[in-house]
Specification:
The protein has about 900 residues and is an alpha/beta fold. This is VWFA domain-containing protein.
């Protein structure tokens, strides 16, 4: 990994060279990856781009917005193309290649022009879009950041765009839309010009459907020249980041975390992993994350002044009190600043470079995180206890990214509090004139506003950002380094000025107290109320200045100017939200199960996989579990072939357990001759009680033909005894928008019968469905999932285009081919994408078979005219490699719509409009 990306310098987050699985959603139905369907690695094509690998950028705009109209917003959202984690990986490859080429040719680096996009929503914005189901993150589901302002320690005024007029610190105010932000679009560019243009483009895309908060994007810009990669205090930024196991390449010493610490739905996600939580996250949150944005204003001149005044005290706080040669004034100031941060400005860790900066350690990705806080070179300090010998406990990086707190804090707990940090500086560089003006007036508030547009990612607010802010940075007693609490002070950078009460204590007679004693004081406040103050006594040397960075001395150099919590949905969830106005919000599925003697294994497999099918469908974000209904139609045959039943219907039910119970009661037996009562099952489909608002899918699983299509040894060669004509019934399905899929049990269907293959291929085409070979019962779940998802996307396009297609056909007398070409051109130009399910063809090419399919496709019913045209197909129908079984490869990908799919859409539109 290091060699492959060596030209990307000290970047903390780099992709693995060969991740075990690049995408789980695309492979969810792939036969050779069936076992990996529950993989513990996030889907890089489904996670939005900044979250895992962080956008490579020199400029970044944050477009905060409110939605004016949900319908037009969703329409625009359909054309919004978020950058995925896989896209970022590819971008890093391009940048590395450009730098490698420049290095090898001794030429300047050719800039890779990039514009990258991400969109996230506040909880209030999600409600505005109609997403009412909780995410499972208790704080996010109740609180805006405005509600938590005091809790987070923010004591100064916020920028107006982040202020809600009616915050509720107790109950939260996410359901109060007044003054709320609905979302943020993050736009990252390889240059300021590229970023600005991309921001303008995305604002134009959403147009009047949104109002940009503050009237313009909030701009972050990387510093230039010698300050490249540094924030305004002058420190190299972004060096320390967590490494997601199985996704991110690991540098020596880098803290490793389970993917679920950052990405919802994977190991490490506290909601997923907590056995006491009964209600887990909804499936649509998988591959999503929480984004926290904070505008952090930095008082750079105040920081510089504080460092200059205290740098001269270096002998007070370095180990041993002196070094040789002595530090120069600048070295002393740099050391003092490094002890506030935990790193030198170069990025070198203080733990391994405790006295002077080390540029080699700073720029080497194998060294700049390869440290701990264990002291091994001093026999007077235990290697088994946390120590601040080289790096203060209060140093910013040690406070917020703690290490080595065993045995008091478990390493897994520390890991679970990790966040991925991103963002860029904002504001102009400090000028000499500005410094002179501040010094001349003695007023640090005259400094121009500048700082960091900070954003970070985690799967849980309380475990991540809140823990780091409240539990770590603002906590005087963190890190825990003893069984007895010891006050260490707050993070000198991100901590909050503590509220001190004015007054003193005259302890006469003097208290008998020693260092480490617990002391309980009872004080009377100005209001007459009695207060108890408890703590542990600490000896203080008289007439000695407080240690550098102590709360009573530290002016605190960073001021929060506000922010917000956002949910970053997965690409698939984003797509489902975008299509909410045109995609059916409900899904009805009927299984037509051949219940004759040879089919028991298939019935049992449907029973065993229906729960997983439901979970997979919900995981796409298209439907909630309550919007899915499953029905069953079992069929056998007519007497005298079978005397038990012809069909047995089970009504739609959204309770998967009830459906499984119905399946458990089904037993396969009987049947008589080869053909069975498929015709009667088709008739039952039409009367199954479909929801008019649902996408309607019927899935036939059989190893036999229906009566009357010309099969030898048919007990009813004239067709169904009840006159249920299957061709007429399927045409009626097409009219009603019921999509028929057929799963043909192979090799039985092709080797034991001569007629059904071509018949079923034609029937599914009439409805816009698909015909699939079922040569391996274990592939059922994959076949179900892929066929249903593609059908849902195709059905959505039918609903959206049926009026236009019908008008072209009736009023303009356009042919189906012409309509298909026009619609394909339009959808391609608008970058329309659909879930596309492919299965390798196991059938040998056969010209006569293709002719038979066309005859059945054009037929209106089964009659002598139709059957007389059907010719026998000679030779093997299966390819040689599949005659003894075998599972064809399957894949499901979201990709640009194809012409053949558009032709299916047009055929379905015309059938429904007829």
């Amino acid at each position: 990994m290091t060699d492959l990306y060596k030209h990307l310098g000290r970047r903390a987050i780099l992709p693995l060279v060969s991740p075990p699985l690049l995408t789980t959603r695309q492979a969810v139905v792939t036969s050779d990856l069936q076992a990996a369907a529950t993989t513990d690695i996030p889907d890089l094509d489904n996670v939005q781009g900044d979250v895992i690998y962080i956008f490579p950028k020199k400029a970044e705009d944050f477009v905060f917005f409110r939605i004016n109209d949900a319908t037009s917003f969703r329409t625009a959202l359909q054309s919004f193309k978020p950058t995925t984690a896989n896209d970022v990986k590819n971008n890093l490859d391009l940048i590395n290649a450009a730098k490698e080429k420049a290095y090898n040719t001794r030429s300047s680096v050719q800039i890779v022009d990039l514009a990258q996009y991400q969109i996230a929503f506040s909880r209030t914005g999600m409600y505005f879009l109609g997403v009412d189901e909780d995410t499972g993150d208790v704080r996010f589901d109740k609180h805006c950041m405005s509600d938590d302002k005091k809790f987070l320690g923010d004591q100064r005024d916020w920028d107006s765009i982040f202020v809600k007029p009616n915050p509720d610190p107790v109950n939260g105010s996410v359901r109060d839309d007044t003054g709320a932000l609905h979302g943020v679009i993050t736009v990252a560019g390889s240059s300021a010009e590229t970023c600005t243009k991309a921001s303008n483009d995305v604002i134009d895309l959403f147009g009047s459907s949104i109002t940009v908060a503050g009237g313009k994007p909030m701009e972050g810009r990387g510093r230039l020249g010698a300050n490249k990669g540094r924030e305004h205090f002058g420190f190299q930024d972004g060096i320390s980041q967590p490494c997601l196991r199985g996704v991110v390449g690991h540098h020596p010493g880098q803290i490793e975390v389970d993917p679920g610490v950052i990405i919802m739905g994977y190991p490490g996600d506290p909601v997923r992993d907590d056995p006491t939580i009964k209600v887990k996250r909804p499936a649509w949150t998988k591959d999503g994350t929480i984004l926290v944005f904070r505008k952090l204003e930095q008082s750079v001149i105040l920081f510089e002044d504080y460092v200059q005044k205290n740098g001269l005290r270096w002998r007070e706080f370095i180990p041993g009190g002196d070094i040789s040669p002595p530090l120069t004034k600048q070295e002393a100031e740099d050391l003092f600043a490094a002890r506030l941060i935990g790193r030198w400005k170069s990025g070198a860790p203080l733990a391994t470079c405790p006295f002077r900066d080390n540029q080699d350690a700073a720029i080497d990705a194998n060294l700049n995180n390869n440290f701990d806080y264990v002291v091994r070179d001093n026999p007077n300090i235990s290697q088994y206890e946390p120590s601040d010998y080289y790096c203060p406990f209060t140093a910013h990086t040690r406070k917020t990214a703690p290490r080595n707190l065993y045995p008091y804090i478990d390493a897994k707990f520390l890991e679970s509090g990790s966040i991925v940090r991103a963002g860029l500086p904002y504001g102009d560089e400090v000028t000499d004139q500005e410094r002179s003006n501040v010094a001349r007036n003695g007023d640090f508030t005259l400094e121009s506003p500048r700082g960091l547009l900070f954003n970070c990612y985690m799967s849980s607010l309380d475990s991540g950002f809140v823990r780091q802010t409240v539990g770590y940075a603002d906590n005087d007693y963190w890190p825990m380094t003893s069984l007895v609490p010891q006050k260490k002070g707050q993070d000198p950078i991100l901590g909050s000025p503590p509220a001190y009460a004015e007054g003193g204590i005259n302890n006469d007679p003097p208290l008998v107290v020693k260092a480490g004693n617990r002391v309980d004081l009872h004080l009377t406040g100005a209001d007459g109320a009695l207060y108890e103050v408890s703590g542990f006594a600490k000896a203080v040397t008289k007439n000695v200045a407080p240690p550098p960075g102590a709360d009573i001395d530290n002016p605190f150099f960073v001021t929060s100017r506000g922010g917000e919590y956002f949910f970053v949905p997965s690409v698939s969830t984003l797509k489902s939200w975008a299509g909410a106005t045109t995609t059916s919000s409900k899904l009805d599925i009927v299984f037509l199960l051949d219940a004759t003697g040879s089919m028991q294994v298939y019935i049992e497999k449907v029973r065993d996989t229906i729960q997983s099918l439901c979970e997979r469908l919900v995981a796409t974000g298209k439907w909630s579990s309550s919007e899915l209904r499953f029905g069953l139609i079992a069929f056998r045959d007519h007497p005298p072939q079978d005397s038990t039943y012809i069909t047995r219907e089970y009504p739609f039910d959204s309770d998967v357990l009830a459906v499984k119970a119905n399946l458990a009661n089904l037993q396969a037996e009987g049947g008589g001759d080869g053909p069975e009562a498929q015709c009667d099952a088709f008739a039952s489909v039409l009367n199954a009680g479909w929801n008019d608002e649902a996408t309607k899918v019927a899935i036939l699983i059989t190893d036999s033909p229906p009566h009357g299509i010309g099969e030898d040894e048919d007990g009813f060669p004239g067709g169904c005894p009840l006159q249920n004509n299957p061709v007429r019934l399927v045409n009626r399905m097409a009219k009603l928008g019921i999509i028929l899929h057929v799963l043909a049990c192979e090799p039985t269907m092709s080797m034991d019968f001569s007629t059904p293959l071509d018949f079923y291929k034609a029937m599914v085409q009439k409805t816009g469905g698909r015909f699939f070979p079922l040569s391996d019962v274990d592939s059922l779940l994959g076949l179900f999932t892929g066929s249903i998802l593609e059908a849902a996307d195709i059905d959505a396009l039918v609903l959206k285009n049926i009026n236009e297609v019908s008008t072209q056909a009736k009023e303009q007398e356009a042919t189906a081919d012409d309509i298909s070409k026009d619609l394909y051109d339009f959808l391609s130009s608008s970058s329309a994408e659909v879930d596309t399910f492919t299965v390798d063809d196991i059938y040998a090419a056969n010209e006569q078979g293709d002719k038979n399919v066309q005859i059945w496709l054009n037929a209106e019913q089964i009659d002598d005219n139709t059957t007389s045209q059907i010719k026998e197909v000679t030779g093997f129908r299966l390819k040689r490699e599949y005659r003894r079984g075998g599972t064809p490869a399957m894949s499901l990908k979201t990709q640009p719509i194809s012409l053949s799919q558009v032709e299916t859409v047009v055929r379905m539109c015309l059938a429904r409009a007829a």
